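User: For a reading group we're discussing how well predicted structures match intuition. Take ATP-grasp domain-containing protein. Before you show the prediction, I'll give you the sequence so everyone sees exactly what went in.
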Amino acid sequence: MDTAAGSKSDNGTTNDRKKFDKVIYVFNMAEDVWAFINSMSNAKERYDEIEICANLGDRELLSTSDESDLVFISPKPIDPAFVEYFATLFGKRKLEILVPRLHSGEICKDILRDDEVFNRIVELANSVKKLTLLSYTTSHQFLDLVARIRDRGVTVYTPESPEEDCAWTVNFFGSKSGIRQLAQKSCAEEPDLIMADGLICSDISDAAKIAANKYIKENGVVLKTNKGHTGMGVLIFRPGDLPATYNECREAIYRILNQNEYWDKFSIIIESLLSVNHAVGGGFPSIEFKIRKSGEIELLYFCGMRVSREGVFQGIELNEDVINDRIEAMVTDMGFYIGEQLASAGYRGYFDVDMVAAKNGKMYVTESNIRRTGGSHVYKSALKLIGKDFMIQSYIFSDNTYELPGQMRPDFVTLHRALAPVLFSRKTKEGVVIASANMLQHGILAYIVFGASKKHALEIEARMKAIIAEL
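Assistant: Thanks. Here is the predicted 3D structure of ATP-grasp domain-containing protein, as structure tokens, for the group to look at:
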């Protein structure tokens, strides 16, 4: 499969980049869900969430591997050994890393508070007074930063962001209620755009009643906050998880919802529990697109998501055989339809559509992330290391959440040396790419595995885990 199929020429973007050749990338993952993070009742969990978002900054370097002259602004310092590994793996290029002195979680505000970093951004515009500014997500904090830079007389080009008057599209379509409203509105035009039967409410007492009723009738229920993160804000109740009588079931759900403030601050979506067909894309297919500044919609890739039993996204499985041709055509058409709605509303940038393959043969949309995603760095790495036909030439697995055994907290150099026998080889086009050094301090290894076949990729992944187990 040619992953550019369905897209138009990129000449307009290329010409724009010639005018704005200095690229600055701001990694602002936490800003995408800042309201959710602020609503977390447990202070330690809130702190940990901010830290994990910040420490994924070095992983995000991989999603910029196509930029030849880059200034990368990270919430946290990046291990120099990892930077060297990254530069060697993806080819030497100009790379400057800036880190604001203050780390609050809102990196765009941290940049504005740091005269040295902010003045460096303005200085990078040089005499032409032009910059290209990219970000993980188009947050309101990012738009404030863009405005402040423009106040200094710099022309800022944001090819992956909507204009300010259309920035509402990010939070609206990126929320569980927003995509549900789009699906309901579009059922006649795009019958493949369906979601699990569900309701939206704004009160935890009502949510507990509705969820209990659905659980008793259907022997399962799913509750979601309007916009959660890394598995938080999702509750999956399967047969036997809750009491079988209505009142006891309602009280049990209410107690759980009452444990975190975010259930009381945001809309709650109550959905039917779907029976997942794991034979189709691992049960959780996904497809990612990019809407260019011109409004053109480009298909980037489709994949299967690796999802835990608790509903936590872990990584992706990437190859043309992940889903069959019929399902590929269906989800591609449906994805383009959603892209058309986003583009007409003024959104520009990356987005994906996540789905559940059900045993009844239907494909249900679960959400759309209106930003770069947990698979974007895998896609960019595959393009750079394998080439545009990576969907055919390689079988790829990624994992952002692999827990190291025991209390293991190796530094990057130690881990890199230990994994030398299985690391990616440019000659064979197979092996492991270590995707983050910072996450090691959390006891987590983020990685990508490339194999000539699915069997090879799984064997390489197993060898990697065996080496780690013996450290």
